[in-house]
Amino acid sequence: MVAAIESIAPRQAGAQNEAELLTRARRLVPLFAERAPAHDRDGSFPFQNFKDLFDAGLLSLTVPTALGGHGAGARLTARVLGIIAEADPSTALVLAMHYIQHFVMARHQDYPPRLARKLARDSVEQGALINTFRVEPALGSPSRGGLPETTARRTETGWRLSGRKIYSTGAPILSWYAVWAKTDEAEPRLGLFLVQAGLPGISIVETWDHLGLRASGSHDVVFDDVVIPLDHEIELRKPDGWRVQNPTQALVHAAFVGAIYGGVARAARNWIVDFLKTRTPSSLGAPLATLPRAQEVLGAIEARLQVNARLIDSVARDFDEGNVVSPVEGSIIKLTVTNNAVAAVEDALSLSSNHGLSRANPLERHYRDVLCGRVHTPQDDATRIAAGRLALGL
């Protein structure tokens, strides 16, 4: 199995190809930004955005070059996600979950090579998207422990899967689900099962009506005795085997999730800069940009965004160069980046008065979207506790 995985290990895109991929992403920004307000207002899913991403060759960004993709490393992937998030973070979130799946499966020996090749081929040729479904109504976030209620029962004809997943990002468009479940064995094992969308027994319940990231289609997905092939188990271990987070997942939280919320904050920064330059109250007789207070607050926004950019770029570059990112370090970076992003948008709101909270302007949407960073795994309290325990040697 090791040899098989190594044969599809990603070769990272060259500098010229990277520049072209970034250019393709930037070309989509005006289109996505124009559509974003309506999708946010209606809670509708941005299907056209993903057609455009497929046409631009960006859905296969993290698929290995040996399998027809671009083999993007962490740094390029984070940059693309940040660009897309400036225009529409809901689209960027679905895209990030898809990128993460191919990024991880190309780098871990536990992922069955045959399934990795099939998923890569579907992404390259058909634009098929995949995400992992972990969270459940009773379980909450799996990162905090506990056994899922979703159960896979082994039979002679295949695994039979039953359960309900919530916050299933991208549910309306996904072709594949990697479902977190336990087996019904005397000593249950935990792991992921690959499930093709549309099988009998699968239903999507449109429950997503959220404050932010409203166009992400993060609905409930119900599995009612769904039959999947026996060889579609991705990774099964005893519960204790899942206690230690792998370095790739740490990188994912720090660079990819962080890049999304960093992109939202940049969009807010761009709006407030334009507002300060063009808003000229009659009592002032000059643009708000001439006020020292406005300049100071904007400078604080710039400082937070530059720190974010450096942190994301640094951790992604380290990973690409083979330097291990510890789970605690990755979580601390995610905490820092997302809280900087929230603070930057709040600073922008402080300069905009009622204008920033008007539905006619995008700043209130950016604020709702960026707040989601605080509840995105890992949450701040879990990160601080882990860092404190590590410092205490516990």
UniProtKB/TrEMBL annotation:
Domain of life: Bacteria
Cofactor: FAD
Organism of derivation: Bradyrhizobium ontarionense
Pfam families: Acyl-CoA_dh_1 (PF00441), Acyl-CoA_dh_M (PF02770), Acyl-CoA_dh_N (PF02771)
Keyword Transmembrane helix among record annotations: no
The protein's name: Acyl-CoA/acyl-ACP dehydrogenase
Acyl-CoA dehydrogenase/oxidase N-terminal domain ranges (all copies): 33-99
InterPro entries in the cross-refs: Acyl-CoA_Oxase/DH_mid-dom (IPR006091), Acyl-CoA_Oxase/DH_mid-dom_sf (IPR046373), AcylCo_DH-like_C (IPR036250), AcylCo_DH/oxidase_C (IPR009075), AcylCoA_DH/ox_N (IPR013786), AcylCoA_DH/ox_N_sf (IPR037069), AcylCoA_DH/oxidase_NM_dom_sf (IPR009100), Mito_Isobutyryl-CoADH (IPR052547)
Entry keyword annotation includes Transport: no
Residue stretches making up the Acyl-CoA dehydrogenase/oxidase C-terminal domain: 240-374
